[in-house]
Amino acid sequence: MRFVILIFLFLSSTGISFSQKIQPIAPLPSSKQIQWQALEYYGFIHFNMNTFTNVEWGEGKESPSNFNPSALDCRQWARIAKAAGMKGLILTAKHHDGFALYPSKFTTHSVAKSPWKNGKGDVVKELAQACKEYGLKLGIYLSPWDRFHPAYGTDEYNKIYAEMQKELLTQYGPIFEFWYDGANGEGPNGKKQVYDWPLFHSMVNKYQPNAVQFSDNGPDIRWVGNERGYNYDTSWSPINRDEIYPGYPKFDQYKNGQENGTHWVAPEVDVSIRPGWYYHPKEDNRVKSPDSLMKIYVASVGRNANLLLNIPVDTRGLIHPNDSAAMMGFAALRKKSLINLMNANSSKIQVSSTNNSTYSVKNLVDTNPASAWAPLVSDKQPSIEITLATPLLSNTLMLQEPIALGQRIKSFSVEIESENGDKWLIKAKTIGNKRMLTFPERKVKQIRIILEDYRAQPLISNLALYRIISVRNESLYH
């Protein structure tokens, strides 16, 4: 007995313990970045002066008298967003033309000068109240570019912008995301602004420390690199943040993140439900279909990103019925498609090894993103084998990593066997928060996942098998 005790003490003193926790690998997400990633899907509201002038980018010369919605109802926006499954709404409080949707003390170009509510209105306030009523989070877009403000292009403008930030960050309750735009052109005096990013970031950190900040390089979350609704097959949340800046001309070199990046700055996919970001009547019949939105979801949330879907509010101040119908159809597709067939079918899961009871195979199906299965360190090609008791029609495999411990998987492969014995192979790169791999629909009998390369001991937190279907109840992935 004494010999056994001595052996145990020796193993413990050298760090070789069967209950030893797996160490995280840097960089790591902060708690607010983890909470943001869990939101997955929320909305962008592009509604401003451009809505009434029927353009995408205003010039700053527009008269405030143009802004006069006849039936503005932020409760309608929030009600539709909630029914669509969105977790929050981000509002364009000021676009490049400089017109502010709230009565700012630091610009003369705002709703205070408009005929709407006799200059007494405040769109930000109304949306904040509506979001609170419907249990949604509120986000703010405030373009640093200002084609109206006479101070733009001077050091004074940076202080003015920071004061406008303070107004928005202190008067409307909790803000979950602050959205900067990388556009930087000339102001009314023909000058460009050198933005004081440290000042801007400090304002959010001071007044809304739980809010994430978005730009090309974060500091908390970043642009995905396109506005077409998809992330890339290889997607690292780590990125060399200090090498880039908003509007960086060679951003394509950073769009995938970096395997050994210095900071955790996960991507956000921003895309509009219509061709344009603002409402244009000619686009009423060009709203993306529920099927298209479902494919966007898989290519964004299913590729280690969050989805920010833009809804252009019309000149009445309402979400158009065509946009609302598409959003409801998209919500219905997610509800009937994202059902884990493995759980419903009493699947058998076998793994090549297990590190210890803390990292059990049971963690693969507990839906908890913080728990995980881990193989032994000596297992050089860890694998997971799923056998379905009854072959089931499916076309999508979902995997997750426990991102609180860092992003680890560099490459993996999936072998799928159908009911009739046909087999096919999928090669893939990163996983991250969530990865959805689609394949031609088959009655699947068995799936084998092989973790081929990784930055540190691999961890998988959850697995799911889906059949993602169209509005016609047909496979979206033939």
TrEMBL record:
<dbReference type="InterPro" id="IPR008979">
    <property type="entry name" value="Galactose-bd-like_sf"/>
</dbReference>
<dbReference type="GO" id="GO:0004560">
    <property type="term" value="F:alpha-L-fucosidase activity"/>
</dbReference>
<dbReference type="GO" id="GO:0006004">
    <property type="term" value="P:fucose metabolic process"/>
</dbReference>
<dbReference type="GO" id="GO:0005764">
    <property type="term" value="C:lysosome"/>
</dbReference>
<dbReference type="Pfam" id="PF00754">
    <property type="entry name" value="F5_F8_type_C"/>
</dbReference>
<dbReference type="InterPro" id="IPR016286">
    <property type="entry name" value="FUC_metazoa-typ"/>
</dbReference>
<keyword id="KW-0378">Hydrolase</keyword>
<keyword id="KW-0732">Signal</keyword>
<dbReference type="InterPro" id="IPR000421">
    <property type="entry name" value="FA58C"/>
</dbReference>
<dbReference type="GO" id="GO:0016139">
    <property type="term" value="P:glycoside catabolic process"/>
</dbReference>
<protein>
    <recommendedName>
        <fullName>alpha-L-fucosidase</fullName>
        <ecNumber>3.2.1.51</ecNumber>
    </recommendedName>
</protein>
<dbReference type="Pfam" id="PF01120">
    <property type="entry name" value="Alpha_L_fucos"/>
</dbReference>
<feature type="signal peptide">
    <location>
        <begin position="1"/>
        <end position="19"/>
    </location>
</feature>
<comment type="similarity">
    <text>Belongs to the glycosyl hydrolase 29 family.</text>
</comment>
<keyword id="KW-0326">Glycosidase</keyword>
<feature type="domain" description="F5/8 type C">
    <location>
        <begin position="349"/>
        <end position="453"/>
    </location>
</feature>
<dbReference type="InterPro" id="IPR017853">
    <property type="entry name" value="GH"/>
</dbReference>
<feature type="domain" description="Glycoside hydrolase family 29 N-terminal">
    <location>
        <begin position="61"/>
        <end position="327"/>
    </location>
</feature>
<dbReference type="InterPro" id="IPR057739">
    <property type="entry name" value="Glyco_hydro_29_N"/>
</dbReference>
<dbReference type="InterPro" id="IPR000933">
    <property type="entry name" value="Glyco_hydro_29"/>
</dbReference>
<comment type="function">
    <text>Alpha-L-fucosidase is responsible for hydrolyzing the alpha-1,6-linked fucose joined to the reducing-end N-acetylglucosamine of the carbohydrate moieties of glycoproteins.</text>
</comment>
